[in-house]
Write a structure and sequence with these properties.
Length: 98
């Protein structure tokens, strides 16, 4: 959410069906509300989602993961009811990305 290019990254992931990893999720950006709500509509054979008044083609292979390092982060029931929560504590040595 803190990245200035977040909106473009979100739009690209939605359109091309890539996976979007969002870090520091405790800084929730309402820009993703249409995604969490799955506010999709069909028009002329296309599946669209509106992000900030812009219609984006929605790919069914799109995935989004929210991460936080704050073990005390609390998300309201409005957010928790719309996501599949899977809480894991992962130590720094437990994961290695190359």
């Amino acid at each position: 959410f803190m990245d200035g290019n977040f909106r473009k990254q979100l739009e690209s992931a939605l359109r091309f069906g890539t996976t979007l990893f969002i870090h520091d999720a405790e800084n929730f950006d309402p820009l993703i509300n249409p995604v969490l709500n799955r506010d999709l509509r069909r028009t002329a054979g296309r599946v669209l989602i509106t992000i900030s008044d812009k219609d984006i083609d929605f790919s069914p292979t799109f995935r989004m993961f929210l991460f936080t390092r704050d073990s005390d982060a609390e998300f309201g029931p409005d957010i928790c009811s719309r996501v599949n929560r899977n809480i894991r504590n992962v130590g720094e040595k437990s994961i290695s990305l190359s």
